[in-house]
Amino acid sequence: MNTHQHGAIFDWDGVIINSAAHHEESWERLAKEVGKPLPLGHFKRGFGMKNEVIFPGILGWTSALEEIRILSLRKEAIYREVVQEIGIKPLPGVEAWLQTLREAKIPCVIGSSTHRENITTTLEVLGLKSFFSDYVTAEDVKHGKPDPEVFLTAAARIGASPEHSVVFEDALVGIAAAQAAGMRVVGVATTESKEKLAHADWVVDRLDELNVAKLWPR
User: Fold this and answer.
1) Per-residue pLDDT tens for 136-157?
2) To which H or E segment does residue 197 belong?
């Protein structure tokens, strides 16, 4: 396998789509369903983290692994119901940038702590499935961001080395994960301010502001 080719690794929420409202609603519905409280600021604090960390660490609901698994599956099922109810669109500039990368023959892969079914279902709805060679999701990794495992696994899937990979991220834990993986990273200012993302290699409001030659100089 050629491990020197360029690669583009995309986080999902806040980069391809903005599903913050959908996820926030699904947490509210789950809390009501199971009769548990949601701590103030829980959504922002848990942003970009795996459910396995959120339930015990942020919400303090339970540390029992089986209970966490059941709650997590239910939460994601509710999320997909919300998406189907209110619909979803790609963020501005996403499709144009994916088309640019396709023309430049740069393989694209998703590296996210989101559950696989959420991604595959939404990609079908958006009509963007053909742009991605593969997906690395919550089911594929043991350690969530800021651990670099998700991005290192994603790069390996497309045969790209870390130094030739560029990550597209909106969350601070994701930027930390990309940097820990030895990759360059674009901060997308959808959920955090440009000032907060300033330690990324590039910071943009939308992906179609970017230029292939700047990200992957020949």
Assistant:
1) 998 999 998 999 999 999 999 9
2) none
